[in-house]
Amino acid sequence: MTEEVNLSLKPDHSKVPGVVIDHSPASTKQYLGSPSIVIMPNGDYIASNDLFGPGTNYDRMAVFRSRDKGTTWTQITEQVGQWWSNLFLHKGDLYLLGTSREYGYAVIRRSTDGGETWTVPKDKHTGQISTENRYHCAPMPVVAHNGYLWRAFELAHGPREEWKALVLSIPEDVDLLQAKNWRFSEAYQHLWSSSQWIEGNIVITPDNKLVNILRSNLRNVSPEEIQAESDKAAVLHISEDGKTLTHDRDKDLINFPGGGVKFTIRFDDQTQRYWSLGCKQTNPPAYRNTLVLTSSANLQTWRIESVILHHPDPEKHAFQYVDWQFEENDIIVASRTAYDDGLGGAHNAHDANYLTFHRIENFRDRTIDDPPLNEKE
Question: pLDDT grade, residue 283 (50/70/90)?
Answer without folding.
Answer: confident
